[in-house]
Amino acid sequence: MDHTFHFISGLPRSGSTLLSAILKQNPRIHASMSSPIGHIFRAIFNAMGADNEFSIFLNETQKKALLESVFTAYYSSMDEPREVIFDTNRLWTTRLATLQQLFPNSKVICCVRNPAWILDSVETLIRKNALDNSKLFSQADAATVYSRADALQRRDRMIGFAWSALKEAYFGEHADKLLLVEYDILVNRPKETIDLIYQFVGEKPFEHDFDNVEYEAEDFDAFMHTKGLHSVRRKVEFKPRDTVLPPDLFQQYAALQFWNEKHPTKANRITVQASEKK
Q1: H/E element, 168
Q2: Measured between alpha carbons, how far is 142 from 28 in angstroms, rounded to an integer?
Q3: Which of 3, 99, 159, 202 is within CB 3.0–4.6 Å of 152 for a Cys-Cys bond?
Q4: What residues contact 230, with CB distance under 8 A and at least 6 apart?
Q5: Whole-prediction pTM value?
Q6: CA 104, 183, 29 angle in degrees (round to 5)?
Q7: Tens digits of residue pLDDT in 225-257
Q8: What is the DSSP letter of 84?
Q9: CA dihedral 178, 182, 187, 193 (to 10 degrees)
Q10: Spans of all domains in the chain
Q11: Cα(229)–Cα(260) distance, integer angstroms
């Protein structure tokens, strides 16, 4: 089966698992949590570089075929073949130029959220699993909410890497391939949001059931010692609550919302500020 490939990327704890759970209700679409393809792709890409003395024997056609084969091999063995694939990984925003070489018609849906609430979401999970030593942090990092926040914001860690990768893509030459989807809008207005995503990727509308959406990755979450990391509630809805973060830390992270600032970009957005301008 020939597949149409699109990608889900963006920030963690911002609705990518929820979005996948919604999309996979459509019998044409496969979507899931982060797949292993991103890391395999990166390993092959690096192996074709200057560190491999035999890379001189690879021409551009062969390089392209090798990278494409990662996707075709992985998705050809699906139990229920789907025509449209949304592969999820936060590193895809660092590989837009390469993805456009492989799949020129592909689009990237980038889930975003106020970074303060991303940190709050992680912190809430850590406290909920108070008897587990989460693999998200080293022993030193895990000492306080401030050390955990500092660790997550590093450029090679969960929030810092995704934020940096998204910002690179947002201001890059392929930004028109991006659609930023803000978590608060997705959970408040799911039907309108999904309809806009379908328009962006060129898919026909589908009647989703937003009262019966579920997704679990219990084995992976147990491996990470962070139960609930990829759990999705059955009903898509917004549930307001107070933050568990100290005020200074909340403000520090909230200031990282570059996508709502008035900077030139070709990226498409379903965000609070963008929707208010309509």
Answers
A1: helix 158-170
A2: 42
A3: 159
A4: 17, 33, 215, 216, 217, 220, 221
A5: 0.89
A6: 45
A7: 455 554 677 899 888 899 999 999 999 999 999
A8: E
A9: -40
A10: 4-276
A11: 27
